[in-house]
Specification:
The complex is a heterodimer. Helices cover about 35% and strands about 35% of the residues of chain A. Chain A is of the alpha+beta class. Chain A has a 5-stranded antiparallel beta sheet, covered by helices on one side. In chain A, strands 7-6-8-9 form a 4-stranded antiparallel beta sheet, with helices on one face. The longest helix of chain A has about 55 residues, at about 20-75. Chain A starts with a helix and ends in a 5-residue tail after the last strand. The termini of chain B are far apart. Classes of the chains: A alpha+beta, B alpha+beta. Chains A and B meet through α1, α2 and β9 of A and α1, α2 and α3 of B.
């Protein structure tokens, strides 16, 4: 066999190309790998953007919750207290100040300044004791529950809850 | 008819000059590439996989804040009802180093002891005095730590 020139020629030429089958296989594999890689990259990018927006919304929520907690801690009296609005007097360093927290559309306002936007839900509820259910605002109210929902990316709500015991009532 | 020796030499020359990749070479390249990706991906991926942590942390912090406000409200109720007894409050909050789940909330007690302040406003051991109760709690898992001082002073 080794002595057969017909058999030897293709091997010896050094210019043998790829066969059609090899080419098709390689193209198909490359195409598949490229597709998988692109899809992975797209998913990763989406996840990254989602994570970034969630973190940004979380930071806004943290700021709003902590500010509201500080505000309501110094509350000494309230003239209006509904689930979405509190008009109150705060006692700070012996000085009384009047403030208002209210929800207008998707914005939570503190004295008409936007504290946080993207709000999809806000509920203040009032309790007379730590283990009592919610009741209407009265002079016996000892705790204010704050429940805030912010609209995160992909229409996902970020729910935050805490409660405050006003110190000056 | 070719000379066997020359034939071999030509085949050898040819195969080095126009050699493609052998199967082994391709497999090694793919394996190394896959290993590299496997090493790199987790690092790229933590931005996504651990992205929920800030939110969990905030929720835990708000929850422990809620617990502390419950304790404060309870303290103020007892104060208003003239039934304030710091030793009873200390008992209700729970022993140091334990996880608690009760009406106040779910929390871990780090400190729950009576303290005093010396002349230089430094915290010292109470030594039997029961006028200032120091309470430090944190969430059972992870998150912020809160400290409150309760005194037996009546308003």
């Amino acid at each position: 066999m080794r002595d057969n020139p017909i058999n030897q020629t293709p091997r010896l030429s050094g210019n043998r190309g790829f066969s059609l089958l090899e080419l098709i296989l390689v193209l198909a594999l490359l195409g598949f790998l490229g597709l998988a890689g692109t899809m992975g990259f797209v998913h990763f990018s989406r996840g990254f953007v989602f994570a970034r927006e969630t973190t940004a919304t979380t930071a806004k929520g943290q700021l709003a919750m902590m500010r509201m907690a500080k505000e309501l801690q110094s509350l000494s009296a309230a003239s209006t207290a509904t689930p979405t609005r509190i008009v109150y007097t705060a006692l700070r360093a012996g000085v009384e100040e009047n403030h208002e927290l209210r929800l207008v559309g998707a914005s939570l306002l503190l004295d008409n300044q936007v504290l946080v936007d993207q709000v999809s839900g806000l509920v203040f509820s009032y309790h007379n004791d730590y283990n009592a259910g919610a009741s209407a605002w009265s002079a016996d109210t000892r705790l204010i529950d704050i429940s805030l929902s912010l609209q995160g990316p992909d229409a996902i709500d970020i729910d935050l809850q805490t409660r405050v015991a006003p110190r000056n009532m | 008819m070719m000379i066997p020796g020359r034939d071999r030499e030509q085949v050898a020359n040819c195969s080095t000059a126009a050699a493609g990749f052998t199967l082994i070479e391709v497999i090694i390249t793919l394996t190394v590439g896959a290993l590299l990706m496997a090493v790199i991906l987790p690092y790229l991926g933590t931005t996504v996989t651990r992205s929920g942590e800030p939110l969990t942390n905030l929720r835990n912090t708000l929850s422990i804040y809620r617990t502390m406000e419950n304790m404060s409200a309870d303290y103020r109720s007892r104060q208003a009802g003239n039934t304030l007894d710091l030793v009873a409050l200390q008992g209700d909050i729970g022993a140091e180093g334990t996880d608690r789940s009760n009406g106040y909330g779910d929390y871990h007690v780090l400190e729950n002891r009576f303290i005093l302040f010396d002349g230089a406003d430094q915290e010292t051991a109470a030594g039997g005095s029961q006028h200032v109760l120091k309470v430090t709690i944190r969430p059972v898992t992870f998150g912020a730590t809160f400290t409150t001082l309760f005194t037996d002073e009546l308003p």
